[in-house]
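Why do we bother with a discrete structure alphabet at all? Because it lets us treat a fold like text: something you can write down, compare, and reason about line by line. To make this less abstract, here is a complete entry for TonB-dependent receptor. Read it the way you would read a sentence in a foreign language you are learning: slowly, and without expecting to understand everything at once.
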Amino acid sequence: MKKNLQVVLMFFFALATQFAFAQERMINGTIVDDQGMPLPGVNVIVQNTNRGVQTDFDGHFSIAASTGEVLEFSYVGFTSQTVTIGPDMQDLSIILGEDAAQLDEVVVVGYGTQSKRQLTDNVAKLTSEDIAEVPTPSLQSSLSGKAAGVQVTQTNGKVEGGINIRIRGIASVGAGSEPLYVLDGVPLINNNESNNGAPTNPLLTLSSNEIESIDILKDASAAAVYGSRGANGVVIITTKKGGNNKGTFAVNYSYGISETANRRDWLNADQYIELFTEAAINSYGEADGLAEAEGTFDYLAQGTDWRNREIDTDWQDEIFRTGYTQNADFSASGGDERTSYFFSGAYNDTEGIIRGNNLDRITARANVSHQFSDKFNAGMNVSFSRTNIDRIANDNAFVNPVQGVAQSPLSPAYLENGEPNPNTLYANFLLQDKHAFYNTVIRRVTGRAFAEYKFLPSLKFNTDFGYDLFYQTEDSFTGSLAPFQSTNGEAYASSVGTESYVSSNYFTYSQVFDEIHDVEVVAGMEYNNTHRRFQSVTGIQFPTDDFQTINSAAEISAGNGITNGNRFLSYFARGTYALDGKYLFKASVRRDGSSRFGRDTQFGTFSAISGGWILSEENFLSEADWLSFLKLRASWGQTGNAQIGDYAALGLYGGTSYNQRPGIYPDQPANFLLSWESVNQTDIGVEYGFLNNRISGEIDYYSKVSKDLLFDNPLPGTSGFSSIQRNIGEMENSGVEFVLNTKIIQKADFTLSTSFNIAKNKNEVKRLPNDGADIISGQNIQREGESLNSFYLVEYAGVDPENGDALYYLNGKGSETTTNFNEANRVVAGAPYAEWIGGLTSNLYFHGIDFSFTFQGEWGASLYNGGGVYQSANGDYFDNQTADQMNRWQQPGDITDVPQARLYAGNGVANSTRYLEDADFIRLRNLTLGYTFPESIADKLSMNNLRVYFSGLNLLTVTDYEGYDPESRSDAGQGPGTTFYSAPAARTFSLGVNLKF
């Protein structure tokens, strides 16, 4: 009996012990780095189970685990750690140290990701923190100064202004020069569909609150996997997604005011009367000159007393205004072991700094993924946006508000009855503002459905289907009281819908053999089909200006409609190999076929190879405590440029009307050999890290040779065609890039880091058609041995101090001078593209206070003021003049660059280097100052995080450029590097709040 009792007791003891070890309980903890800073996003996994979580913003986690189970903590860039759960263990405090053997980044490349440490390509990575809280509706503008060799320029200060991004210089003459944008694996439509003569930015439809990272593929080794579309670089945009953690809800709201970053000094009434009276007398003599000047003043003053300066209009006050921008966005994210989700919405409302120019946008996104089994997962990303823009005329239109600076200060802006004055020197843009409108609405839907199946732990298959719909409508109405309106009103309406779908299917094999051979191979195919439909109609003769849509027009005066499209069929493969973690190799190939090219050249092959050597892993350097990381890499590859018309290679016919009879005419000659431009690029670089990566960076040299450039080659008139598009010409971009990152201070409550980059690019035209003959267009020239679109101008030599005549050099500086402009020869006088670009970003955190700023600089570009012949013309005509024209020559012996004022005499107002300036500048692009309230205060408000902040955009510009803005360019096609009454950038001051629940 006693023995049986002992057996029973032992059984229950064993059962209780097993139950105690098997019983799960919540384990809480905090994870920090070796400086005490919390680490969000650390993976916490119970080994040999599918249970896992991630740490929150403050490094906290909570996970169910049993005594005896093992928790594994892993985070990119840090050494992994494991902890066995003891019977009394409840709260953990984990410190993860940095892994000096790797750089703490994972970059997104075509059809996959790679660790920055083993990357043999040149890829610049920006995170959501780099682009957050910059008060601008344009996502691209927030990239300025952040990546070496990447130049971001907004055309001008209009809210919808086009954006130019140049990655390592401009690589094309006749084809597009913008990079390929890829959003979550979907190539984005990026066509300018504006019909008012000024470009819009198609990517205005993206909101920065949904962006997780932006990876910029700069060299051919990285971009070659995109084949015929990677010549200008590739920008891969990855949106946010949920994780295996408790759901969070975040809200951000900011409101800011905007003003012009710069204003110019123009003549006031006193100066205007003085200068033009003098100019008239110099041209016509005392009596006739006074009569000419005063007669014009009487007209301009419109019955007001100009002699007593009754009116002194500052037209800039009518043109520019204090605008505002407000942003509101929210996001919800989270998930569990199987399902993750991210939902977001955003609203932007921007009133521009130019009268009549406004924008509002709404965006929404849903990203969901689900792990159906250990082998299969799938998901979907969907987004929608609607952007509504109130637009103004292009820079070359008289009703463009900025052209209002040409009006005389003697002219009142409004009549006594409050109506805009219709009798100004030029058309009064205020009439256009009141009696006309131009509205553009862009609706965009992007989506991607994806699935992944793992056949083996080392082999998986991905299938993706992406969709991008870009739909734009434009409506305008010009009433009978608007300038230049000879009919009873005119209305215009257009719509364009472009949809693109892409199907990608590829296998990925990844395996490590014998712990030293790391192999990954990606191979697959892709099909991309794009279709576009455009239609427009114009109507005139409206019964009243109150009726403003086409259906009220008495006469349909014009109409247009067209459909077009293109297709790409591609096969690609990429292989990477790492030996012993320090010898790195990569090769890729893509076979592209495009409907855009000639039937004999529709398919092309684009390949790339690269290699790297991590020297810091070698025995002869592994003992160097001061050296954290050192890698040499080199690459070569070929990419293409397919940004030409959809049917550029085909012989086209069009319909026409002759004597009201239909007919067909040849519209375009065929070129069955027309193919893509190709770019061969070589890159040699070194990546370094010192003192436990407290100092790190990159140095690169590259050479990009663009071959088979697309040109419109003139044809004899007897052919029936003016030109044919052919692959002729060669150009090279070469340069160096330098990146220096520092972690100056890394303590629990005090961090200071900087990131500096600078790049030099030299552009040279190597070969031109027609045996290298110069190609001259306006003020620009294509010449072998010179930079693309170099300025080709007569050299201005100043003023003859004896008589005030303008002088010109006969053959450039140092040669003889002449007063006859037509005797002088044009010379290459500068280039429109910067030779040096750079940026400096700094981030500081101190006891809840965060402070960051970015400076951006450009040097070596020239900017031609196309409006200078009117606005800085020493009183040649009655346009108001820049204030520096008061420094004109007046008497023998005067030393000045401003010739004598002579009305209608053309003294020094020819197109010359007088109106060409250096456009060097350094700009404080953005600045943010924030404060995060202590956790105790946030808890009382039932929040996880509470932060308030101030941010600024374009707060300071240091430049010798005398115009409105060294970055602004004409949006009306006056030629590369030309400004023409182009609006300056906006300076914006914003206050905001971040809430997280």
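What the structure line is telling us, in plain words: Residues 1-22 have pLDDT under 50 and may be disordered. The first helix runs from residue 2 to 22.
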